Amino acid sequence: MIEKERCRDGNRRMQERGNEMKEKKKFSIQWRVIAIALGCWMIPFVLMVGMMVHYILSNQLGDRVDNMTDQVNFNMQTSVERLNQAIEDSRDASYEGELRSVYEAFMNNHYKDYWLSGRVRGYLNTKYTKDKSFSSTVFWYLDDPEKLNGEVYNASAGGSYHQIDTYWKEDHETVKKYAETLDTNIGFLECDGRVYMIRNLVNRSFEPVGVLVMRMNIAYCFEGMRHFLEDFDMSIYLNELNLEFSQGKEQTKTEGLHPEEYPKGSTWDGGYLYIRNLVKENSYSLDTLVRIPKMVVMDSMYAYLRILGVMIVLLVPLVVFLILMVRRHILQPTEQLMEGAREIQEGNLGYQITFEAGSREFVYLTESFNQMSSRLKYQFDHIYQEEMALKDARIMALQSHINPHFMNNTLEIINWEARLSGNMKISKMIESLSVLMNAAMDRKRRHVVPLKEELQYVEAYLHIMKERLGSKLTVEVEIAEDTLNEKVPRLILQPVIENAIEHGVIRSGSGTVVLRSYKKGDYLYLETENNGVMNEQERAKVDRLLAPDYDTSKESSGNLGIANVNQRLGILYGEPCGLAIFQEKDDRICARLTIFVGLRAQ
User: Can you give the pTM of this predicted structure?
Assistant: First the structure.
């Protein structure tokens, strides 16, 4: 199984390299065929549509914008004329002198207050109750505004007594202060959405006598704009007053509409058409900004676009037919061949394509692919079986090289202990020997075992060696908990421990052997340390025994231990797994086993 996984891993690497090559190509052959086929149809069509759209946008759109700009200017001029007429009507109160004469008669004859109010109300009623430019009119004298005044309202312009009451309660003081700044000019004042036109009444010496306050009927003054701008927003500045329109409703604030940010005329900005009109009169300036959605401007051109849409819809069946033909006779056979190649790359040898191609060329390619896949599977199966048989034979041969010298020494010790006295030591040593012999015989024929089981074999071996060497041998164990369940080759540690004791402890007379395990990434590391220093001759011998092409048949059994371990790891896992022996410190030699425990090894 491990060999199969290694083979599949190699196939995966080949597939990854193939994918990288595909990415570099960017476009597969089938998409190139589609691009060529569609290009023969799309290029003329796109050119035709582009020319039509260019004509529509360059001519029709420009005419539409000019027409809308002219319409805005025309309706704005109507509003200017109504404002001028309203201003002209307000001048009558000053030029006719009726209000001055009433005041002079009141002062000279000492009439009652109600007499003056009645005369003022009568004059205002005659002049302004039928003027739609004003919804209500108030006139008051400077000497005593609260008593010496008169007011009327125009019901036909939306006026009511409530407007007059609102003026006296909420707006009078503001208007009074503003009138002091006007002199003989006309002014416009906004109070919480209520717009007033204000002018002072002066005597023959041009001294202020009273103030005429007229509430503007904004809906009437800008009636043309309101009817024209029912679908979009408008902002009108009367002097400094912002009279804004939104969806045809006067005095609804529209954020962000500032005429001074745009030039006069028409301007496109962010999907909207902005039209600005600026009118400056002697008594006021009127600055207008209209915001029209692009969809509204282009509404009349949708007929042309619908014609283009119908043309596209009529041509869609042709495109669909072309795509279906290309897919049926080119794309699908090509995809089946690519799928077959991917299956073989993933190790599914012998994969057969069952798709029935519609062309003679792809029929030949499909049959050839199936025959090649069958032959490849047949050859691979035979080669794999021969390779596995050879490797099994090599592994069994290597595992059979158990040191007979060790077995003889063990039996002598047991015999010696038995002759001296019968105690538990004999039993324990016999048990340890039994563990080692069972591991060597391997009745279950397992190549790999959990590390914790391998450590049982090592413990049995170390027990026997401690009985042999006594206090001369010290063993330190540093086994990481997360390594105990990792799979390792059976009897992989005993030859290394034996080598450490034979060439380290026994040669030195005494010593310490350290056994440790740890993991890094996909690899498990098993290390032994023992006392000793390798000279040049020993270093050369180790290099020879651990060489990749070392032939164990030419070596005496006494030197097969570490070579056995190194070759078994190489057969099972490949590079970089194996055994390495090196000088760790000045007086310590380390033997390190590298075992692959990644996903493929499981």
Answer: 0.45
